[in-house]
Write a structure and sequence with these properties.
- By secondary structure, the chain is mainly α.
- The chain has 2 domains: 2-288, no CATH class; 303-431.
- 72% of the residues lie in helices and 2% in strands.
- It has helices at 2-5, 26-49, 56-74, 79-97, 104-135, 140-148, 153-170, 188-193, 201-208, 210-213, 217-238, 244-264, 268-298, 310-330, 338-359, 365-392, 405-431, 435-445, 450-458, and strands at residues 8-9, 13-15, 18-20, 23-24.
- The chain has a two-stranded antiparallel sheet. Strands 2-3 form a two-stranded antiparallel sheet.
- Helix 15 packs antiparallel against helix 16.
- The longest helix has 32 residues, at 104-135.
- The radius of gyration is 22 Å and the shape is globular.
- The model is unreliable at 462-467 (pLDDT under 50).
- The chain crosses the membrane at residues 26-45, 57-75, 81-98, 119-137, 149-169, 190-209, 215-237, 258-277, 312-333, 339-360, 372-396, 408-433.
- It comes from Sphingomonas glacialis.
- Residues 76-292 form the NADH:quinone oxidoreductase/Mrp antiporter transmembrane domain.
């Protein structure tokens, strides 16, 4: 129906712009399928995971309520409904984070999440009021159509700023990321549930109001800087974490930063694709983490580690760029926006990191062949999925505008920054035992103590069950 007739908007059940309405388009359709599928998997997993727990019924109830509000969020047809279910999602998640109220770390995580969420809620409420004032309606379809026509003036631009703040806080961006790295104290299904549209809700908000965000280039620039820094910072911290689930949590912070970066570059179709891909693999990673650890421990075979040296790293980067260029031209590389080309270059740095392992002097030939095949498959997959995402959201999401001087500066900064970090990651095994590297590792493993600063600001306050 969506492909034949386009977006569908229901009539409002309510009065004066306040009530219930649904907007079904490519964005909400994709998110609806994603949330429903992951939610179904998590609920089934919970039935076994908490079997015998005295409060299993309560947990399943709060879990179902959280999923229901996320579904209402992605289907919202007016800003009043969107704000209400946005707040409700956070409040229901708070109950899940406190499922084991006797755990001090769980209380600390819930307290930080509660404070961060309430600030984000206020930002979204202000944004909704400004949008209603700017466009004279609460209907999201009418707001988007008017914004695409370039109307709205200063109130719409300021609203874009508050939308950005709400998205940053919802998706655990630096320096308000600490709560996400501590949710391991809650049951494992909660960690998987976060990827069913909860932690991704910030990205969804920016994608839903993409036309409004394009009215404020300065806001988009801020998203690039904060999202890019969060991705780099969390990606480095992740490498130092000894616990699997904590490492996965830091990985989520980094992935959310990269998603915000994509939105800041106005690559909204790719940000939507990122949400889907990350949600599926990360939810699976959390649910399978226990079994994976046991499997690795049972099959551990100590042997030589193939650490790439400078020559192997250089060859890996050159090979990765060559693969990117060849595959890219096959998919019409020359017709892509500069933002999309830069994003592809950043992603290919990850491919280079993988290739470096296969090109190391001690690496067996089988590993070398496998990494090259994976590199080609990754590049083909990136461009193919990019084409599909742009086609799927055509007419729903605006294309990336031509970059101006500010945008070009941010693009160059992002490519150079991610490139340098990729080189550092590839070379880190060679420096791991240097005294300076050992000290840096300690600071990185603690996230440069940003989380401790947040704890200090809270002054030891902890949310109780009744909160």
């Amino acid at each position: 129906m969506l492909f034949a007739h386009g977006a569908w908007d229901s009539t409002l059940i309510g009065a004066r712009g306040i009530g219930f309405s649904i907007r079904l388009d490519a964005i909400s359709g994709v998110m609806l399928l994603l949330v429903s599928f992951i939610g179904w998997v998590v609920v089934r997993y919970t039935a076994t995971y908490l079997d015998g727990e005295p409060r299993q019924g309560a947990f399943t109830g709060w879990l179902s309520l959280t999923l229901a509000t996320v579904l209402l969020l992605v289907l919202s047809g007016n800003v009043v409904q969107l704000v209400l279910v946005w707040i409700a999602t956070s409040l229901f998640l708070h109950r899940l984070l406190l499922f084991y109220p006797e755990r001090i770390a769980a209380k600390r995580a819930a307290a930080k999440k509660f404070v961060t969420a309430r600030i984000g809620d206020m930002a979204l409420i202000i944004a909704a009021l400004l949008l209603t004032f700017a466009y004279g309606t609460t209907d999201i379809e009418q707001i988007l159509n008017a914004a695409r026509a370039g109307t709205g003036g200063d109130p719409a631009i300021v609203a874009a700023g508050f939308l950005g703040v709400a998205a940053l806080l919802k998706s655990a961006q630096f320096p308000m990321h600490g709560w996400l790295t501590e949710v391991m104290e809650a049951p494992t299904p909660v960690s998987a549930l976060l990827h069913a549209g909860v932690i991704n809700a910030g990205g969804f908000l920016l994608i839903r109001f993409a036309d409004v965000m394009l009215l404020a280039p300065g806001v988009l620039a801020g998203l690039v800087l904060i999202g890019g820094f969060t991705a780099l910072f969390a990606g480095l911290v992740m490498l130092t974490q000894p616990a699997v689930k904590t490492s996965l949590a830091w990985s989520t912070v980094a992935q959310m930063g990269f998603m915000i970066l994509e939105c800041g570059l106005a690559l909204f179709p790719l940000a939507l694709l990122h949400i889907v891909a990350h949600s599926l693999y990360k939810a699976h990673s959390f649910l399978a983490s226990g079994g994976a650890v046991e499997l690795i421990a049972a099959n551990r075979r100590p042997g030589p580690v193939a650490s790439p040296k400078a020559g192997a790293v250089a060859r890996a980067f050159l090979l990765a760029l060559a693969i990117y260029a060849v595959v890219g031209f096959g998919f019409g590389f020359q017709h892509k926006s500069p933002q999309a080309i830069a994003l592809g270059a950043i992603l290919i740095f990850g491919v280079a990191y993988m290739l470096a392992q296969g090109l190391a002097d001690a690496a067996p030939r089988a590993l070398t062949r496998r990494t090259v095949v994976y590199a080609v498959a990754t590049s083909v997959g990136y461009f193919a999925l990019q084409v599909f995402a742009i086609w799927l959201t055509s007419g729903v999401l605006p294309p990336a505008p031509s970059p101006g001087p500010l945008e070009w500066a941010l693009i160059v900064l992002a490519v150079i920054s991610f490139g340098l970090v990729a080189v550092v990651q590839a070379m880190f095994p060679l420096w791991a035992y240097h005294p300076a590297a050992a000290g840096l590792r300690v600071h990185l493993s603690n996230g440069f103590y940003a989380n401790a600063v947040f704890d200090r600001l809270l002054g030891g306050w902890r949310m109780r069950d009744a909160s």
